[in-house]
Amino acid sequence: MYLRFLCRTNLDSIDVGDAEFSKKAFSQKYCYDKLKLIINGKNQLNQILAKYNGKPNDIKFCLLQVMGFEAVIYCLWLEHDGVYVLRKIKEMDIPIRATPLSTDTMSLVDRISILHVR
User: Fold this and answer.
1) What would the pLDDT profile of 15-48 be if each residue is shown by its tens digit?
2) Residue by residue, what is the 3-state secondary structure of the chain?
């Protein structure tokens, strides 16, 4: 499953991040989903940069890969002409127990809170 994060203004909507989800984790699926996520993220980043007048490395594009109950948050940006940087920001577990769900949910929200707009 694929998910897009959008930032909507009065005139337009802009992609600010992508996510890729799969139920089970195995190496071939992991690599395929990560490659698809990066290629799509790079394409969307290029579209944003085409409309942006500032320094290219000011724009950071968030990527989220979820496999089973584990998730990884990446940040993608254009460092300079043709050189893209993918940095792993955080790895986390997705809450799975119903009993301490409020605690696990707060922990998940805290971990995802790094996805903020500057």
Assistant:
1) 567 777 777 777 788 888 889 889 988 998 898 8
2) CEEEEEEECCCCEEEEEEEEEECCCCHHHHHHHHHHHHHHHHHHHHHHHHHCCCCHHHCCEEEEEEECCEEEEEEEEEEECCEEEEEEEEEEECCCCCCCHHHHHHHHHHHHCCCCCC
